[in-house]
Design brief:
The protein is an alpha+beta fold. The chain is built from four helices and nine strands, in the order H-E-H-E-E-E-H-E-H-E-E-E-E. The protein has one domain.
Length: 146
């Protein structure tokens, strides 16, 4: 095995041990910058995603996986909504429940919202937060009239 391959394996091992020690489910690539360069970390994280040890949630955002005891397959370690909430908190974006979720939570509606919609206030956000086929949809509150 070449020296370069050994260094890559060591970096992958260091990244995995760091990820396992971190609290929470969401990992940002920027949290791992002390371990190596940006492109090195991107390659290692892509390798971990291919090995299904991590799930890519968005640009530079990853989530831990766990073994599903019923199917024996790896799946995200938390529900999509909690992964999205933790990701927004870590990147510093303040979001709230969407209009439909707000109506359901306050008791004004009995319809359970099926789509993960969040309101961003007047802020415009284009960042994709997605796990599998589930994706966060943004609502902007306010406008010229409000």
């Amino acid at each position: 095995m070449s020296t370069r391959a050994k260094k890559k394996l060591r970096l992958e091992d260091r990244v995995m041990s760091t990820i396992k020690r971190r609290p929470g489910v969401v990992i940002l690539r920027s949290e791992l910058t002390k371990l190596g360069g940006r492109s090195q970390l991107t390659r290692v994280l892509a390798t971990l995603v291919a090995a299904r040890k991590l799930v890519r949630v968005g640009h530079g955002i990853y989530a831990k996986t766990k073994l599903n005891k019923f199917t024996g397959t790896l799946m995200p370690a938390a529900a999509f909504e909690s992964i999205a909430a933790e990701a927004f908190a870590k990147i510093g974006i303040t979001v709230g429940p969407g209009v439909l979720a707000g109506e359901y939570n306050s008791g004004r509606s009995t319809q359970i919202p099926m789509m993960p919609v969040v309101t961003t206030g007047r802020r415009r956000i284009t960042r994709k937060i997605q796990v599998g086929s589930k994706r966060v949809i943004y609502e902007r509150a306010g406008g010229k009239d409000e």
